[in-house]
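Issue 218. Parser rejects a valid record. Input:
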Amino acid sequence: MEYFDSHMHIDDEKFDLDREEIIKKIYNAGVTKCIDIGCDLITSKKVIEIAEKHDFIYASIGLHPEEIPQTEEEMWITIDKIMELYKTSKKIVAIGEIGLDYYWNKENIELQKKAFVKQIEIANELKLPVSIHTRDSIDDTISIIRNNKIENSGVLHCCPFNTELVRHGLEAGLYIGFGGTCTFKNSKNAEKIVQIVPLERILIETDSPYLAPEPLRGTRNDSSNLKYIVKKIAEFKGETEEKIANITYKNAKKLFLRGDE
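Output the parser choked on:
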């Protein structure tokens, strides 16, 4: 089976000592395409460097809500610098990780919203999909995706198991990304949410090095663990693992690579 990891962070410092070994490991495990996701200017540069070095790795650039600068002026400057990177590489296939996160910081909510909307607009201009992060911010996320057209689709990455968010995401033409959290024994509504998302709108991801799936929860995650996520989705859907791997591969290829090899 072949797998497509639609969201990983192989650029993360947790891989600094053995990054090339892990990249070989994940490819040998059947992960023949994956997207390394930038979160700020530094990591967006780094994901491009890694993608340029490895044929099967692609890059996404953006400003994560946790990385919003302290002032609005700094924020606009940072977003401009990140988006200038698009001119430097043909391996950039998405804008993200963008979105809202009120778990760590509720003092800059308005800045987060402005950054989210602006990056959707930039993605529309560049004809790229978006990778959306949402944590403790479901209502505002729903409001933004309803009121700001996302012209080239995208994904609700590591999607919270919230029926309303998923419903509005699907109505907005988005894909739903499932990762290690759907395998957690204490995840509420995981099976219900997976069952209501059509097969043609499901993506799989690791968000590595974070959120390792059961039975590896608590360890450093990497893309070779996609098999556990595929197994759980297949169980929830009553399908074979091979079918889930194949359809999610095709879905990610359609969204991010526009069908190109």
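Fixed in the parser; the record now loads. DSSP finds nine helices and eight strands in the chain.
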